[in-house]
Amino acid sequence: NLPKKVKIVEVGPRDGLQNEKENVPAEVKIALVDRLSAAGFPNVEAAAFVSPKWVPQMATSRAVMDGIARRDGVIYSALTPNMQGFEAALAAKADEVVIFGSASEAFSQRNINCSIAESIARFEPVAKAAKDHGVRLRGSISTAFGCPYQGEVPLEAVADVVARMRDLGCDEIDIADTIGVATPRHAQAVMATAIRAFRVDALAGHFHDTYGQALANIYASLELGISIFHSSVAGLGGCPYAKGATGNIATEDVLYMMNGLGIDTGVDLDAVVDAGAYISQFLGRKSSSRAGNALLAK
Ligand code: HMG
Ligand code: MG
Known about the structure:
Blueprint: E1 7-10, H1 12-16, H2 26-39, E2 43-48, H3 61-67, E3 75-79, H4 83-91, E4 96-102, H5 105-112, H6 116-132, E5 136-142, H7 155-167, E6 172-177, H8 184-197, E7 203-207, H9 214-223, E8 228-231, H10 251-261, H11 269-283, H12 290-297
Parallel strand pairs: 1-2, 1-8, 2-3, 3-4, 4-5, 5-6, 6-7, 7-8
Helix pairs in contact: 2-3, 2-11, 7-8, 8-9, 10-11, 11-12
Magnesium ion binds at residues 15, 176, 178, 206, 208, 239, 248.
């Protein structure tokens, strides 16, 4: 009994592009976001208000948020690690802010330069400000399935951070496989742990595809009733603080599978293939979406 409807959060403009070495101009990001929102995504992660010294590619976030053609009903999200990020996201009229923590201490230090406990303390005022301003709040939990620095991540650590994100008032919580190491039964064990701590319909699977397991892990999560998944057009991406990490699962591949399963996403696959071709052409490389390339070759 798989969910009949699934929400796909398109994260390509943020997670997909944040790791690009060459600066991608705001105009290109704007054109990409506009193509994606026109394709029917209910939620596009478009920006990250983080330190430009840490992630230079995201320095265009304000210009992107100012330049996009907003569509009614589409949620445009922005990452906000602290109050400085929140203020910037608010000024840029983000519909949703994302506080991002980790289930691994080692990764927390490398990614946001503080411990898990310190990060939660930093998120508290952000969460409160989001509530005060009526902005949706999402919590993202990195390295829930494994960490590039500490290796295994215990289920209790995931349960603990999910509970903390829940207590901060998150509307949605993402369980992220930052380095794409999970396999389906492990994915289910982690998701089942998260489900015990938070509403199943507000949990999201954020799977990077480093080891080619992401689609299998999404299917395994569907079996548990998870109905929100993150993916990146053309499979763009990596994480600057996870060496060797590759992109998120390609959106085209997820949509192809959902369409085959008869699961409604409201997203037009052909339009996403076009958006993938657009950004791949700009970057001068082939899309890493198998379904996207197959459909283009037809
Ligand atoms: P810090 O150095 O500890 O922060 O960094 P600080 O408060 O001491 O500030 C230091 C400097 O950064 C100051 O500037 C601040 O103004 C500036 P200076 O005085 O040196 O010129 N600063 C900021 N600038 C712009 N926007 C801000 C901001 N905050 C401080 N919001 C901090 C802490 C979190 C800021 C830093 O570590 C950082 O920005 N890290 C970036 C983390 C990041 O973006 N990682 C990638 C996204 S997460 C991800 O990809 C995982 C995910 O996809 C899920 C998964 O797959 O796992 C979500
Ligand atoms: Mg990610």
